[in-house]
Each structure stands twice: as structure tokens, then as C-alpha cells.
Amino acid sequence: MPTATRRERQREATFEEIVSTSRDLLAAGEELSLRAIAARMGMTAPALYRYVANYQELVDLVAFEIDKAATDLFRAAADRHRGDPAASAMAAAVAFRRWGQENPREFGLVFANPVAESACLRRDLITISHSCRFMNDLLIDLHERHPIPHPTRDELPPGVLETVVDPVMPVDLDRLTDENRGLLWVFMRVWAALYGVVTLEVFGHIDPRLIESGVMFRDMIANLLTPLGLTERAEELLALVGEELNR
Amino acid sequence: MPTATRRERQREATFEEIVSTSRDLLAAGEELSLRAIAARMGMTAPALYRYVANYQELVDLVAFEIDKAATDLFRAAADRHRGDPAASAMAAAVAFRRWGQENPREFGLVFANPVAESACLRRDLITISHSCRFMNDLLIDLHERHPIPHPTRDELPPGVLETVVDPVMPVDLDRLTDENRGLLWVFMRVWAALYGVVTLEVFGHIDPRLIESGVMFRDMIANLLTPLGLTERAEELLALVGEELNR
DNA sequence: CAGTAGTGTTAACGGGGTTTACCGTAAACG
DNA sequence: CGTTTACGGTAAACCCCGTTAACACTACTG
After folding, report:
1. Residue A210: CB partners within 8 Å, gap ≥ 6?
2. What residues of chain B lie within 8 A of the CB of A126, using their CB?
């Protein structure tokens, strides 16, 4: 279906080059500025405005692509335990943590930028966040293998029902029956715990020795095993987390 | 002891004016720039370099003062339940959350700035963070009233012992016996959970309806009651949290 | 072929942090 | 007391930034 006029293809190509150049710039530890991006492409800054409304929009686009690329890393970690959704989830969580610590600037861009501030683009993009979708899929895999205990619709805390009936986050609703919607509440709690500890560690607002040893992260994972219905495999899975942390 | 030469007093005064002007600027929603600060004080930007090494150092100083002022808010909330450390802790946690949501820029400055990046000043300041010290005091109060279950030194996960023996965070060690050091591990876990959910909410990386209703925050608090040894008062304390959220 | 839309340029504006050189004045000293 | 020194300020400049306006070339379109 790539039957587009030559100009359209050209435009699409330079657009992608802008984003990839931005990512290179960030990866090189340099500041992300329109002038720097343009210079790297052999252009001048004002030309970028033919492709992007303003700087913030560019940042949002780059953040979206970074999230997409990072998700590939998470998926690769999970795939090393294909067939075992529980192990896959552990590996993906560790990969998420590692990626954040190794790329704090990128992490901040994607996960610690106020989504409310940047007007509409970011709010739209977040509803198709690759990482969120991937993690939700992972937990659905897990549930299909080993049922995850979850509340029924009327057991949900007040205020949660609407969010699981009509979720704003990306999730494969085809794999969730109406009775299973309570699972989404479990997912969100898991996400809150994972996001919280990783953000805490990336920003370093805790004793650095606890980050280095990974003990806070392990503890958080351990606390998640019960709500995920994985208590029987706790020992084994925590050992796996230890291995993944030391990879 | 304020026997300082006139010049020294003058210098101290303008220094404090710089910080307070910065806070005013932030509170007004304006951008924090050296030129803006100087202009508000009837000076020019280069003059600020007589008081501050560079922009980042100023930001760190302001962040420190903001943390200090915010702690006063938390303390005020806790004091409304004087004599009941458990209730005080609940109120302080809710106050922390509210402050973060109402002042997201300030919150980001204090709690979502990489501490590792800004070389030395910030690392030094964080070890005397007022908010951290306050929350630790609160939990010690709680422990002195209602003992908090905590591991002994040899029950601690590997890698934690050093951090409770020689903690980098500010805490009143006089109130902690050697046997009680395991409490610090409980404190750090509690901090991780509180920080995580509040940061998640401030940055909006979750369904906004869960933020608005406060259900994710409540759930996190509920999960903390057991490690804090407050299961008997769970219902009452969660009701209190609900009240505080709706203040 | 003429016209037009698309894609780039240069020049410029206003605003950042920061450095340099300079200048009064208040403190310190002989 | 006068002289010297150090401090706290200024103006000008430098180099960065995002952004806009005016203009040019180029490639599609009728």
C-alpha cells in the first residue's frame, strides 16, 4: 500500500530522519535542540517547521518513538522465556528497570513528563503507548496460563468501574471478557508499583546502595507475586529476577 | 549569635531575597530564569553570580527551600491529629499528595530531578531534606506509640544492613536503638510506595479518573497498613484518608 | 508551458546563561 | 585621618535557544 507520490515518500523519509536524528542526539548525551537536529541532517532549524508545529511536538514524537524502541527491548527480554508468561513478566520488569537506569534522560522524557501540560498530541499518543500495551498483553498471557485473582465488577473499589469498562490505556479488549475486566484493576496496581519503584530509582531519591543492590526493586516484585497469583512460584521467580538483575 | 558585620548581614539578606523571589516566580507560574529573578529584584542578571555559582546551583537551592516550605504544610496536616501518630501519618501522606498535585512544577523540581546529575550541592542537600526527616520522625512517633513490626538486623535482605547502620537520609538516630535499625528498612519501603504513587499521579501516567477519585492512592495506603502494624485500625484510618482527600 | 504548492534558505527578533571589563562605595588598614 | 582593598553592582558582549518572516528554488499539476 506504499503507493504514494514521490514527494510524499520523500517527506515521510525526512520526517523519520528527524526523529531518528533526535534519538541519536539524545543517545550521544547531547542536548536536544532544533538547531542541533537540523545541523546533523545538513539543514537549518527553520526547515524543521515544515514537519513539526513546534519544539514540544517534536519532543512528544521523539518520546513516542523512544517508548516504542524501548518496548522492543522489553519484548526481547520477555522472549527469552517464551512459553512461561510469569518468567516473561519478571524479565520484562527487570528490562524496564535497566533501561530506565541506563537511559535516564530518555526515561524522563517518556515517563516523567507531565502528560497534562502538553496539550493534545501527547494525550493522544499515550493512549497508544507501546510499552503499556505490551505490559498489558504480558499480564493477559499470564492470566490465560495461570488465572490471576481479580475482583468482580461489583467488588471493585468505587470509581474504578468506569476505568475498566472504558479504559483509556491501550489494551487488547478482545482477550478480556466482560467478567475479566477486573483484571485491568490488577494491571493498573501492578503498573503503579513498577513505575513507582523504577522512577524512584532512576531519580535517585533513595539510598544509592539500595539501587545498586536492587533490593528495593526485588522487594517490590515480591510484593506483586501475591496479587498476581504466583505465590507458589515465588522462590523460583525471585531467583529468576536475581539472575536477570545480574545479567 | 547574629553578630555579623553589616556587609555580611546585607549579603545574607539579598541571598534570601533571591531564593524567595525565585519561589514567588514559580508560584506565579512563570519561568525561572536568572534575568527574571534579577528584574524582580531591581537588579541585572550578572549580579546574581556574586551569590550563586551558576543557574543549576540556584535551582538546587530553591528546590531545597521549597522542600522545606512544603514540609511545613505536611506538618500542619499532621498536627491536626496531634497525639495520634497513625492519623498524623495518614494526614501527612495525603498532604504530600495534594501538594504535589497542586504544585506539579515544584514537585518535579524537588522530587523528580535526577540527584546524581547535579554534582555535589544537591547530593549534600538531600541528606538534610526536611521532608524526609519529617516523615521519618513521624514513623518513629508511630513506632513509639504502636510498635511497628520490623526485621532484626540478620533478617534484613542482603544489601540493606549497611544502609540502616549508616543511613544517608536524615533521621534522628538518637530515637533508634541498634535493635530498631530494621525500622529504617520499613521506612524506606513505605517511602518508595508513597513516592511512587504520588509521582505516578502528578505526572499523570495513569487513567486520570483514578487520580481524580484518589482510589489508587487509597489502595496504596491500604497496602501499607499491614507493614506498619495498623491492621486493627485499618477501617478507621482509611476512612480518615477519605476525609483528608476531600478536604 | 504557466502556475502553484512544497521545501528549503537567510535574516532577524526576543530571550536564555554566562563572561568580561569596568565602576562606585563601603569596609579595612596603617 | 587618608589610603587601599574588596565587594556588589553595571553595561556590553558572546553564544546558545525557539520562532517568525520574507524570499528562492524545485517539482508536481492543470
Report:
1. A216, B159, B160, B163, B188
2. 205
